[in-house]
Design a protein that fits this description.
313 residues; alpha/beta; Arc Repressor Mutant, subunit A; D-Maltodextrin-Binding Protein, domain 2; 9-stranded mixed β-sheet; 10 helices; globular
Length: 313
Amino acid sequence: MLDQSVLQAEVYLAVLAEEGSFSKAAKRLNTAQPFLTKKIGEVERDMLKVKIFERSTRRVELTEVGRVIVPEIQLAMRQAELAWDLAGYHGRLMHGPIRVGYSPYTHDAMLRILYQLDISEFEVQRVMSADSPEPRLVFSSRGTPELIDRVLRGRLHASLGIHPIYSKQLWVVPLASEQFCVCLPKGHALAQHSTIAARDLHGWPVSFIPRDMHPAFYDQTTEYIRSTGAQPEYHEVNSEKHAIEIVAHGFGIALLPHSASRLSRPGVVFKSITDRYLKIETALFARRDLMQGVLKDFAHFLAVKLQGVKPIW
């Protein structure tokens, strides 16, 4: 087993490589720069007997050997951090609230069920003491990539996200599919159409989600629209309400989930998009290797409850 001095040396090497500066690394490590400089020198000279960093007046860079060694150290540290997260996960599962995430694109009908769930049957299995914290179910709303990361790290027990979801480490079950609609000013040329096709978006300024909210979903959607021959001018907008306000003030149109039409306000209309391949698919996911015992029962219970939802689009 590695002793504490080796583990400490690994931390110093990894942080210095990430920061590229002794002063920045020392600040992050909450230590003095001369101390860190001395320690790195000792690691190179006495422990590894090879030079890891090239020093200059402006920046610290990895040597050829360093470029081989340090990524392996960083990978080991990430795995160690993950192990601690998963250890905490098991403690939270048995003693704290069940934590469930959901995407901002999750339909209201699903959220109503989620927030009204009675999980008392799982509490009997899970709670080991009378003073376990309340509430039993805690929710977190994030973009799908962040939800995936939190589930993989054990910070969420399960989550609702938007396809595509790429990870062999996840158990994923599809729940529902929702078509898109277009929000338009009442006087807009397309507002006279009974329905709209994706190709009709060509040339218009279109409010849509920021790409970093879910890059795979964003690219899948915009690539399909491009395949129809349409080339809209996309503007990134974080919320459905904000997008509708932009439309109401006459600044373009918005591509939204069909359920956003519930937010209707004076001066705008919503039109369905006829392309059947242009849709939002919601799925439930959890770590595959943790799908056992209480979590497995809870995830299956949640899937059954939410698969029964049939929203009216």
